[in-house]
Amino acid sequence: MVKNNIPKQAILIALASAVYYVESLVPFPIPLPGARWGFSNFAVLYSIVEDKNLKNALYIAIFKSILGSLLSGKFLSPTFFMGFSGSVIATLIMYLALKTKKFGIIGISESGAIFNNITQVTFGWLFIIKSAGIYWYLPQMILIGTFSAIANAIVVKSALRSVKP
């Protein structure tokens, strides 16, 4: 188990930040300002599954959110705070899902995606929009998040196969 592998973390943060930026350029199918696909979360999932270290995964989640939002011009915007809170909670949930030893990579990724969406919508309701009407987007977000979570899990499985004999 890797306790503190700064070069690997730096690479994962850089990759996730770049993906975050590219995601900001790709239209999202739901008319919700600031919504993204969630593919940059592959780096957090990879760190959780490979390193099994919550601290490393949180570093990646935090810094990819900050750098990605700086690159896309959304730093400290309402959507930044929604995404940041969702990313941190998703990281904690994925780590807990890993520790239960009842989920595979797809289940870990799905649990993170679902809680990411719930957290973002709840944050938006409580601090930004202040209307429970935002919850109408949640089923659509979870549906799209399901596909993103599966894609992230496939990327992580492929990466793990390529780095392990």
From TrEMBL:
InterPro entries, sorted: Hpre_diP_synt_I (IPR014535), Hpre_diP_synth_I (IPR010898)
Gene3D superfamilies the record matches: 1.10.1760.20
Keywords: Membrane, Transmembrane, Transmembrane helix
A Pfam family of this chain: Hpre_diP_synt_I
Ranges that cross the membrane: 79-98, 105-128, 134-156
Protein name stated in the entry: Putative membrane protein
Organism of provenance: Marinitoga piezophila (strain DSM 14283 / JCM 11233 / KA3)
